[in-house]
Amino acid sequence: MKKGIITVIAMVMLMLAVPVTSSAELLWTKNETPVFANKNWEITFNKDVDAETINSSTVYVQDAKGNTQKSTPKLVNGKTVVVPAPSKGYVEGNDYTLYIDKTVQSTKQQKLTDGIKMNFAIESIQDYIVGAWKGDYIGINFLAIFHPDYTSTVILDDETEVGEYTISGTNMTMRLLDEKRTGRVDKISKNKFTITSASGKVVTFTK
Predict the structure, then answer these.
(1) Under a CB-based contact definition with an 8 Å cutoff, are residues 151 and 139 in contact?
(2) How does DSSP assign 17-64, residue by residue?
(3) pLDDT digit string, tens, across residues 139-178
(4) What is the pLDDT of residues 113-143, one digit of tens each?
(5) Rounded distance, CA 196 to CA 202, Å?
(6) Less packed terminus of the chain by CB within 10 Å, N or C?
(7) Which of 34, 32, 167, 169 is closest to 91 using CA atoms?
(8) Which domains, ranges and CATH numbers included, belong to the chain?
(9) C-alpha 151: how far from its chain's center?
(10) What angle do CA 124, 139, 158 make, to 5 degrees?
(11) Is the Cβ–Cβ distance between 110 and 47 less than 8 Å?
């Protein structure tokens, strides 16, 4: 197993299991499951990290053409670094690579023996949500069906509400309970996502 100050990527818990064979970046043994365009990566180290070694030159994301994405990594506590998505999000359908440079070190000057990288792809929100989902909004349970043609069907207490939904960036608008509801879409897992409004109200969908 890879030895050094980094052990896992939080939220996906990918263990480093690649033997050291060269000075190039080591690649995780498999790519991360496709994520939404607003994905913020959290990297958890097994030792406290020297904040002076965390910057956009040591922890960064590049697209398939080698273009570095505009994002400033932040050390949020002694061991966790957050890499925010670009302000306009990643591009759906594109591939990216998260890099951690070997100059990142612990507060006791322990460095990574190699740089590390992880490939990931950006998933289309519509491709993900099309289908039937069990919904929950402030304790109200319903069935929602999102169709490929951007129409939706909501079934609540044997009553059917037909409407449309739209997706703009990482925001989605849908008709629910006779009102249009808009919010940020967050993929929690393969079988769960949420829509969070600007006021903080959450609609939860599960398979």
Answers:
(1) no
(2) -----SSSPEE-SSPPPPB-TTPPEEEEESS-B-GGG-STTTEEEEET
(3) 999 999 999 999 999 999 989 999 999 998 889 999 998 8
(4) 888 999 999 999 999 999 999 999 999 999 9
(5) 4
(6) N
(7) 169
(8) 1-123 (2.60.40.3710), 125-206 (2.40.128.640)
(9) 26
(10) 80
(11) yes
Count of CB atoms within 10 A of residue 75's CB? Answer: 20
Q: Which tokens is 62 given? A: 């590049």
Measured distance CA(198)–CA(154) in Å, rounded: 22
Measured in degrees and rounded to the nearest 5, phi and psi for residue 73 equal: -65, 145
Helix (H, G, I), strand (E, B) or coil at 195: strand
Alpha carbon distances (Å) from 187 to 48, 55, 105, 193:
29, 27, 31, 4
Q: What pTM, to 2 d.p., does this model score?
A: 0.71
Identity (one letter) of the amino acid at 183? Answer: G
Overall size of the chain counted in residues: 207
Residue with the two structure tokens 């249009």:
180
The one-letter code for the residue type at 197 is S
